[in-house]
Amino acid sequence: MSNDATYINADDTSEVTASAPPANMEGMAQTATAATTEQQVRGDVRHWLQNHWDPTMDPDQWLATVVDSGWAAPSWPTQWFGKGLDPTLTTAVIDEFRSVGAFGAGADKHNLWSNTVLTFGSDELKARHLRALLLGEIQMCLLYSEPGAGSDLAAAQTTGILDGDEFVVTGQKVWTSNGRHADYAFLIARTDWDVPKHRGLSFFFLPMKQTGVEVRPLRQATGDARFNEVFITEARVPAENLLGEMNKGWGVLQTALAYERAWMGEVVAKQRSNASGGDTGKSNNGAASARPKAAFTDGDAPTPDLSLVALAHSVGKSNDPMVRQSLMKLHLLVTVNDWNNRRGKAALTQGTSSPVVSLGKLAMSRILHDAGSLEKELLGAEGMIGGSDSPRSADATYSLLNAFFTSIGGGTDQIQRNIIGERILGLPKEPELDKNVAFREVRKASASSERSSNG
Ligand SMILES: Cc1cc2nc3c(=O)[nH]c(=O)nc-3n(C[C@H](O)[C@H](O)[C@H](O)COP(=O)(O)OP(=O)(O)OC[C@H]3O[C@@H](n4cnc5c(N)ncnc54)[C@H](O)[C@@H]3O)c2cc1C
After folding, report:
1. Cβ(1) to ligand 1 under 6 A?
2. Domain total for the chain?
3. Which of 178, 189, 361, 417 could potentially form a cystine with 158 if both were Cys, beta carbons 3.0 to 4.6 Å apart?
């Protein structure tokens, strides 16, 4: 199984080049404003905020004001809710918003849904959905993974067949976060079985609320049911909801994944800021970003409490040399991860994605597992109690189990190691036996192959 076919490693575009660059990366800024300097932009934003920002305003009303002003996505074209600014100026806009405690800026950097639709959607699709996506009025989910295609996402077998001006989609997806609430999904489906696996996929904007789409929650070890199985039986999607060209969906996926990783970086940064904030547990991140109304989870997952120094004091173990060593190790991992995360984000703002993001994701997975174990260790016998008898033990149990979220979701730890080995350390690539074979001829991993290949 080749790991350049993975969901997280899918920015390896050697197989199929993305059909167009991400919206905020190049080419979208309009020449009239190309010469606008950072100083001018900062001045304009400050002036606008002075006239409009009101912390007591209803949050939905405020977000609508920001979106309609063009400051939510300033690097987008003016006809699509932007200001046509150079993409490098978005950070200055976010800074200015953050300095007064306002949210709503930076959608052109972080909003996976609207950026992907802006870049690849038809004008009809953009006119119908872009504003609602920016406002978080539409709930979305990602229909990528399948029982036989997770790490090897290019092996997806869900099939789309063109029927007049619609595609008819049949297949099974799994691990779909937010599936129960989603109005629409980003879906990858196979539209050509007679070419190698990367070349026969298309990317759709699928309406979820229709007969033919059945969502079944999956219960997790934590007790939550944050993701779902989705059974798709002859569901219909209008041809105008195709993002990019037919059979070029792998390229569209690269853009969507780049935005998803940027989003994950924000989540990671939020968790990290709790850790590095020592005993305060305060987050210093995200104030300027659009509220994550259309995020990936069913409900807000509790943010893990990484401020374990306070706990060590309170249970009288802060002088224990082994505990001190574990706390220090955690602190070092958090600090180094912070630096790597900044490197990865710097690369993203320059329009490239960096394998350093994999280092950060892998490190965060280790941090969360280590922190969960240490929290349990600090609690000692109390750590065996659950529920309301010991809320802090219940919290530790949750953290320990929920650490697997990061070590599997968005590409597993093993896949991150493959990426680091191949793309940072320059080790030989895994053999790709199915690279030049028509997908129909490739041995399939799942039982759904028969149904799909008949399509
Ligand atoms: C919290 C969470 C949220 C998620 N949300 C979504 C979502 O909204 N939409 C969606 O489509 N998917 C979602 N996923 C699915 C996620 O992307 C997949 O679970 C992940 O990519 C792994 O795929 P898999 O589960 O099929 O495991 P597999 O790919 O079957 O992997 C099984 C094991 O084999 C290892 N392995 C596989 N290939 C290799 C290789 N080449 N080299 C070394 N080891 C390898 C893996 O590391 C793993 O340990 C989510 C998952 C989680 C945990």
Report:
1. yes
2. 3
3. 189
